[in-house]
Here is the input.
Amino acid sequence: MDRYEPQQIEPKWQRVWEEARAFYVSNPDSPAQAEREKFYMLEMLPYPSGNLHMGHVLNYTLGDVVTHYRRRQGFTVLRPMGFDSFGLPAENAAIRGGGHPREITERNIAAIRAQMHRLGWAIDWDREVSAHQPEYYRWTQWLFLKFFEAGLAYRKAAPVNWCPNDQTVLANEQVIDGRCELCGAEVESRNLEQWFFRITAYADALLDDHATIDWPERTKAIQRNWIGRSEGAEVLFRVEELDLDLPVFTTRPDTLFGATFMVLAPEHPLVERLAAGTEQEAAVGEYVKHTAARSTVERETKEKDGVFTGRYAVNPATGEPIPIWIADYVLMEYGTGAIMSVPAHDERDFEFAQRYKLAVRTVVEPADGSAEESEGAAPIGNEPLVNSGQFSGLPAPEGARAIVEWLGEQGRGRPAVSYRLRDWGFSRQRYWGCPIPIVYCDECGIVPVPEDELPVLLPEVEDYRPKGIPPLASNKEWLHVPCPRCGADGVREAETMDTFVDSSWYFLRYCDPHNDSAAFDRAIVDYWMPVDQYIGGIDHATGHLLYSRFFVKVMNELGLVGVREPFARLFHQGWVRLGGSKMSKSRGNVTAPDQLAEMYGADAVRLFILFMGPADQDMEWTEEGVEGIARFLRRLWRIVNEVASDAAPGMPQEAASPLLRKSHATIARVTDDIGRRFVFNTPIAAVMELVNELARARTDPAARFAAETVVSLIQPYAPHIAEELWERLGHERLWEQPWPVADEALLERDTFELVIQVNGKVRDRIEVSAELPDAELIERAKASPRVQSQLDGKEIRQAVVVPRKLVNFVV
Here is the structure.
């Protein structure tokens, strides 16, 4: 074969790997018997709601490069694959396809599996699991029972996000700008009985354990904001007419004497009771109906509006009755869903008070010492209290402590910590999901299904499409069963679990996927866990990533696993965009990788998706670029084959030549980029440079070594052509060969200290090679952790490079 023919080479090597079981790993009988150190490489599992697109190719090719690199460094690498096959994405795909969810899902899984094989990804397919298989969801149900026994799963009525199109509850993170993330319908607020996991009990642990994991600071910040821990006080406001206390959380109890009205969130559970029987009842009901499901961003940024409830509460500091209002700028996600409004010292409250002509009272002296009415300016330091009874004159922090202590003596307040985080509502009124193993009995109440009766199989129903009630309720034979406790007539839970439950523990099942007597063996899980490198989108920061951390912490406390965190290191890939929009199946703007692989070869597709730019940044997809990479592979093929024919095998013994030095410099650079910097586009450029040098110096004594180096370094990216060329160079099984190591004696040491600035301020200094081009200097500078913390996702408008001196980013 003189020409490069990827359609012949790639199937050949895929067969070789499969026959050799090259990427399958066994669980050791004990960690002590493990021959090599383990490395658990994992990417977020796909929804089988369609075929793969180039966004998936980026994600899984990143993982493939890491897998090959770590294997050749001497690690035993576990890299499994499975399918998040329950839930709304798969069910909506079935509705669009006009078939049964099981049929459509399994057809899509087969298609995706074939695409993955076509791209030659190194996957242990013996460990494949799918959430919709009874062998898997039996143990999802078992884990639910464990959480239920521990008091961490419960049912209650609560306001929820309701999608009228999908006819189901949505988690907060599934509502984008007031609309369903999956179908785009405007979301409504409803008060429904729901199943919840008590994730709030782990709020502090979820915050504290950030210190133990190597995650992007941006992701940790998103989770911190989502959890929203605040220290302050809980204060009780009395509604005498209703013999009712309204608790309010505040971080500024020093301003209590300035509270001139109260505001409740539209979804607050007491809104209906407060408005009942007043002249405002109809107006309140209308306001709640139209505002509660607005997005958080809209509610917090739009012009403030609200409606009076017709009721008053007593300010416990002043004894004065103050009006109770409803307004959507107050969120149930924060505190108690009710605030004391101090318009003199809060901008939002001041705007609201001005609109509705409500009283404004200054209780913290302005910093400039004036006594004039302020416009919502928040106190910032030790300004003294004014108009605050016996506490006037005290510095604000001291006054806050004294006021809380005084309220405590009266039984009207106490120190408190509040969280924005709310318990995780996970039950859905849909068909395609894991059945909740609960039976309702008139005598016994809520009764868990016994473990030996699991799994509770998902039954067939005549019509699984959403219609306002759980579709499972239509299967009467399945629905009506004897109570497991007393034998009387019982009714099964007809709701199903959200797919986030399935994906909160799948990485544990991969470790022991064929265990039919337990979810997994703890010793096996403790060997593989935590996941050493996890790759997936930042859009899951407040959903999957938070829920998985919660699940593992609970399982750790239940003695099921020995780790406290599931993912030791996390990397977020950027979005692959087409025409400026994120490529996704739901948008219908996808490019099929298998078609490109047939045209150009899988190796060209793999190389190009990582060559397009830094993997953690968004990139615009263009098919024309694949042809350029295909030309590079044809050139690589020709040059290496010529060297294999001309150059004698073996390491040159002559004095180090420029080509030999370039080869070792390339080894050092690629190793540093992949292993330390976790950068994937620059190694490809480095190998291309070495190919250029090899083409110019094929008679150099180091030509064969340079050719072997090129092939070895390109292998994680383009494994098919690499294996074929390695064989032509007289060797075997490159996938098993150790990763090359640069000879320190041959490395150029012409380096300098690069100063890195952001907007003119020095943020870091790093040592770099004097040979690096400006583009590489910029990439190295951006990779600095100190610089990343300053950039934090900001757009870089300009990067100024002064060679042998500095890089300055303008953001």
